[in-house]
Design brief:
Layout lengths: L1 H23 L16 E12 L2 E6 L4 E6 L2 E6 L9 E9 L2 E9 L9 E8 L3 E10 L2 E11 L2
Antiparallel strand pairs: 1-2, 1-3, 1-9, 3-4, 4-5, 5-6, 6-7, 7-8, 8-9
């Protein structure tokens, strides 16, 4: 009888130790990619430049704009323009080879167009990034250069 009770106590203690180990041991990430996306976080615009045919038209360090990248989603907003038009968008994004691709699925009226996918080359260093949006209007090549600082 004593031998059987001893075995039960040893077995119970081994079970308890196994439970303690499994609950306290570092968890293994079973996803194929456990590295956090370096774009995930909250970003605030720190500088904005508009260039037309290589001439700077606007330099603005007071413009308020934020972008939030998280788990493949993007949302961004900015203060209303002087004409009171709203500018904001929401959608998905991917980031690879120094390029962000944003696919907006919801946006302000001022953003609505036939284009909802934006392929944006960036320069990224971890705490800041610069994106350059290039477009043509009336034979003029414009570049909107936005520099963002990471808040979190």
């Amino acid at each position: 009888m004593k031998k059987r009770a001893f075995k039960k106590i040893v077995f119970a203690n081994l079970c308890i130790l196994g439970l303690l180990y499994s609950s306290c041991a570092p968890k293994m990430n079973t996803k194929s990619s456990n590295a956090k996306n370096t774009m995930d976080g909250v970003w605030k615009l720190s500088h904005f430049y508009q260039v037309a045919n290589a001439d700077t038209l606007i330099t603005n360090t007071n413009k308020v704009q934020h972008k939030i990248y998280l788990n493949g989603f993007v949302i961004w907003n900015t203060d209303p323009a002087p004409d009171a038009s709203e500018w904001h968008g929401f959608g998905t994004y991917t980031f690879k080879n120094d390029t962000i691709t944003e696919v907006l699925t919801s946006m302000s009226t001022s953003m609505k167009s036939d284009v909802n996918t934006y392929v944006i080359p960036i320069e990224h260093n971890g705490k800041t990034y610069k994106q350059v949006n290039t477009y043509t209007r009336n034979d003029t090549i414009f570049k909107n250069i936005e520099v963002y600082k990471k808040l979190d």
